[in-house]
Fold this sequence. Notes:
transferase, nucleotidyltransferase, two-stranded antiparallel sheet, 6-stranded mixed beta sheet, alpha/beta, globular, Spore Coat Polysaccharide Biosynthesis Protein SpsA, Chain A
Amino acid sequence: MVSFQVGVILPSAGSGERLGGNVPKQYYNILGKPLFLYAVEEFLQLPYVVTIVLVVDDVEKVLGILDEFSIDHNKVLVVSGEQTRHRSIRAGLQALHKKESPVHVVVVHDAVRPIVPAGLVEELVLAADQHGAAGFTRPLVSTVVQGGEDGFLEHTLDRATHFASETPQAFQFHILTSAFSKVLLTCILTWMFT
Length: 194
């Protein structure tokens, strides 16, 4: 049983380029609701989740959708996404940091993945509490190759020793914020000295 507070970051600022079409997939209407709302509703049902941060491309549009579906703004924050996924997650962390109720574990999950089994999330959160971080993986099915600098195939990776990482992923809040601080510092130093 989870006995600590958990925050959730749902990146949802993507453009949907791979899907094609004029509407980013987070806004696709599925059975009367935008796709991202299903993940929000699933996490809202978990009693240990105190804050959900939606990181989006259009704050006003998403706030309007949340109002339309009577979603509590005290529990769901909406912040602007950044140019990249990792910067958007950092924006979500900053929003969680400003909340009065500190969280012990933060879950990062793609908002466009609507199926969030509560039992698996609880298992994940407890594992992050115990080990610092946790995530789900699955065996690779496709062949993965590594290319050389010349653009030619160098070798095939052994599928038995590699896995595909999936969301949700969970981290102790202080570990994830520390990691993002180090990445930011590395990026700044690289920019300054190159």
